[in-house]
Amino acid sequence: MSSSxxxxxxxxxxxxxxxxLELDPRACRLEMKWPDLQAAVPYKVLRQSCRCSVxxxxxxxxDDVPPVDAGVTLLKIxxxxxxxxxxxxSDGHERGIYPWTYLRRIADGRAAxxxxxxxxxxxxxxxxx
Length: 129
Hints:
Layout: E1 20-24, E2 29-34, E3 37-42, H1 43-48, H2 53-62, E4 74-79, E5 84-89, E6 97-99, H3 100-113
Antiparallel strand pairs: 1-2, 2-3, 4-5, 5-6
Protein name: Gamma-butyrobetaine hydroxylase-like N-terminal domain-containing protein
Organism: Oxalicibacterium flavum
Domain Gamma-butyrobetaine hydroxylase-like N-terminal: 24-104
């Protein structure tokens, strides 16, 4: 007995990863580019948005965004294939994995809110997930 799967266009989702990631050390931002979106996210926002267990514990204990030094920089990005990226920050933090879909949510929020604002809800944790 054989089995087969039929796939049509409605089954295929868009690729969630950007076609370009660029560090902008002068502006302290990570620039991310998808075919339909470009966003520049400050390093501090990315650091505050970390989903590792340590950051989640701090976030839940404070019921707020973890405190991060204003001068934190992003030193390195390590690609984790189809999963996402690992970000290495100047404060020594390198535990968080940023899935592509999560980076897209951050980028969508950044584009919607403008350059100077960012929805704090995206950094406040994952109680609903």
